[in-house]
Amino acid sequence: MTTTVQPPAEAVAKDAHWQSTLDRLRARQRPTATLRICDDQDAKNALAEAQAEQRRLQRLHDGETTAAAKKALRDADAAAAKAQQKVDEASIVLTFRALERTALDALKKAHPPTEEQAEDGFEINADTLGPALVAASNADGMTEEQAGEFLDTWSDAEAGALFSTAWNVQLESRLDLGKG
Prior knowledge:
Blueprint: H1 9-14, H2 18-27, E1 32-38, H3 41-60, H4 67-90, E2 91-97, H5 101-109, H6 115-119, H7 126-137, H8 144-153, H9 156-171
Antiparallel strand pairs: 1-2
Helix pairs in contact: 3-4, 7-8, 7-9, 8-9
């Protein structure tokens, strides 16, 4: 629920652009993050090899302007782009969006730590929060049941990456602090 509060008249008088700034602040989108899953090891290996060759040729021909050097670099760039395209086609990309702060706070409160977790200093129960957070922040329509299935059946590293992507997007800041 968003309430629209008008800025004080003296603030508007000092900064005629405040309403525009306020509109932009209200229109901001919450941060997003993606998790790319590619099970095609051949495609990933081909990409790594193409990128390694691309770097090798860039070092070899650094500063060269000959037609042969330019062609070699163009060919390497094209091979890397083609390999990247194959990885992209073989990949599943899951998108996560940060929740509104009040929604995240409510979700955390709904999943308090067990007594043992609390004694260890935890503020939430990651076991029960995990599926709920993944589902709530997933922009692709993943349900809590599906999230729980993946968190329970994927390898520890992959389940950790799924949870971490959903959790870390909640912590993402796009502010430029200290710069002015």
